[in-house]
Amino acid sequence: MANVHLAGIKKHFDGVKAVDGIDLEIGDGEFLVLLGPSGSGKTTLMRLVAGLEKPTGGQIIIDGQTVNDLPPRDRGIAMVFQSYALYPHKTVFGNISFPLTVEGMPREDIRKKVEWAAGLLGIGHLLDRLPSRISGGERQRVAIARALVRRPKVLLMDEPLSNLDAKVRHTAREELKLFQREINVTTIYVTHDQAEAMGLGDRIAVMHEGTVRQVGSPYSIYNDPQNMFVAGFVGIPPMNFMEQDGVILGFRPEALLPAEALPDKDCMRLKLLVERVEDLGSHRLVYGTIGKAKVIANHSFRLNLKEGDEHEFAVCSQELRRFDPKTGERIRP
Amino acid sequence: MKKFFSKTYFYGALSMFIIFSAGPFYIMLITMFKKSHDLFNPLNNPFWLNEGPTLEHLDLLFNQTLYVRFLLNTVLVGIAVVVITVLLAVPAAISLARLAGRWGENVGIGIFLTYLVPPTLLFIPLSRIVSFLGLQNSLWSLVLVYPTFTVPFCTWLLMSFFKSIPKDIEEQALVDGCSRVGAMARVLLPLSVPGIITVVVFSFTLVAHEYIYALSFIQDSAKKTIGIGMTTELVRGDVFYWGALMGGALIASIPVALLYTLFLDRIISGMSMGAAKR
User: Fold this and answer.
1) Could you tell me if A35 lies within 8 Å of chain B, comparing CB atoms?
2) What is the pLDDT of residues B127-165, one digit of tens each?
3) Domain residues of chain A, as ranges?
């Protein structure tokens, strides 16, 4: 366990600024998710922490020690790659024990530690198999067991759930959170999947074009976005934006409700021209326009809306977020 | 009926293939034991021992030429060339496949191009080098010269092989506590055994059947390799000692055939490795 401090980290590849001056503090035992679209620099940032890339500038400090010039093996980190990167020529036991074998640990201790890690992840019965003979979910567990067996100070995970099918992914997510709590290891987790980020992270750092646009709890990222990028990137469907009186108003689709549901006076009433309705069973998505702005409403009322209908919708004022149209930054009252 | 035809077709094709590939070996085997009179009589069945077997050709081969010496020379040069090739080609291929990026690819193609220059042209400048180093008429000249074509080809072959091993696995080894060299030895090399076996077998066979360089650089009978030794010692003027030639060729090809059979699966996976991702 350790805290990680990133100070002004930069990484440029042939003039392309993959990571452009990031300051981030990750606490002891914290689960931090790096969330961003592809190409936002999140994987590069993780590789910098791992020592697989050398930073162009800035400092990486793990547990009080600057590790910029240390090779990956001396940083006390472990990493789970997106592809799991299991050694195909070694059995599950051989894979999990590999970091310990390299360390030169006595055979008996290795066996105990491997059994502990395999037990934690419920793969004790697979130890004799080769990676090609186990399922995707099991491979992911082997990769995590191999990462944990050395009791790393920091655990790095690069989209470890993205190769699993949807059903397995959901259970894997729950388990991941549970065992991270159990062994309390500082974790940095990269993903582009916001449901994963919201579900797993103690805090989320939203990245865009090599910079961190906002760091905060899942709740604050969703409800209190600092800029239009975060507001538009987080949330499915994304936040609605419309310009009014020189500012951009943002509101979540679930805040845009049929007017009859919000008799309250403190709500802004809007005429919505319906373009399309998607009935998703538990709720309905109404796609349409308010003035020139394209918006989506997400509600669970039984309204018989059709294409071409005009219906009055409303947003309550506490649901409105104001943004500067030039900078995209939040305007706070 | 349809089944009958498809079976006939299958076994027909198979027999053609067997005759085509095993035929030469059968001719070699039978000629080796055929009396010369039998061999040169056009009325005799060429595929059978019409006048009974003889060991006179083997006697000529083993007792009146330096055949065993040729074999030994070939094995010695072969082993030396294989060792040099593996030692040079493996690290070269790893660095070109991994560290140099786009630049590495172009250098790789450049290296392969040198393999395409025919030895019939190259032996002229190479003979200057060999004589400058004072290696004429020595097996060392071949040990020096053969890697000039085995190393480029094998580097290129291994390069595509190493590229097919995901980079993640190597980086995982770095994270798991290995140094770069450690990751190479513990992870990359075990995974590339099929490629390395291909390289070993390939370089050894090249050495065994190489002709031009051996002919130009070696004059002493006792220093000849099999390819050149047989054809210079058993073809005297316009007299071909067919029985001994065939026997010598057959005996020399047995170890290579065994080598291929033993490692066939691995060689095939080595050859096709770069073609498709796993």
Assistant:
1) no
2) 999 999 999 899 999 999 999 989 998 998 898 888 888
3) 4-228, 238-323
Architecture of domain B64-275 in CATH?
A: Orthogonal Bundle (1.10)
Contact B168 A78 (CB under 8 A): no
ipTM of model: 0.85
CATH of domain A4-228: 3.40.50.300
In which band, very low, low, confident or very high, does the pLDDT at B269 lie, cut at 50, 70 and 90? low
Q: Does any CB of chain B come closer than 8 Å to the CB of residue A98? A: yes
**Cβ–Cβ of B175/A83 closer than 8 Å?**
no
Instruction: Determine the residue type at B222.
Output: A
* DSSP one-letter code for A78: E
Beta-carbon contacts of residue A314 (< 8 Å; ≥ 6 apart): A256, A257, A258, A259, A261, A262, A267, A268, A269, A270
pTM: 0.80
Topology adopted by domain A238-323: OB fold (Dihydrolipoamide Acetyltransferase, E2P) (2.40.50)
Whether A89 and B191 lie within 8 Å, measured CB to CB = yes
Judged on CB neighbours under 10 Å (0-12, 13-18, 19+), A6 is buried
**Residue A284 backbone phi and psi in degrees, to 5:** -125, 140
- For chain B, residues classed under CATH 1.10.3720.10 are 64-275
**Residue partners of A96: CB distance under 8 A and separation at least 6:** A114, A117, A118, A127, A142, A145, A146, A149
Orientation of helix B67-98 relative to helix B101-115, angle to 10°: 160
A71 and B179: CB-CB below 8 Å?
Answer: yes
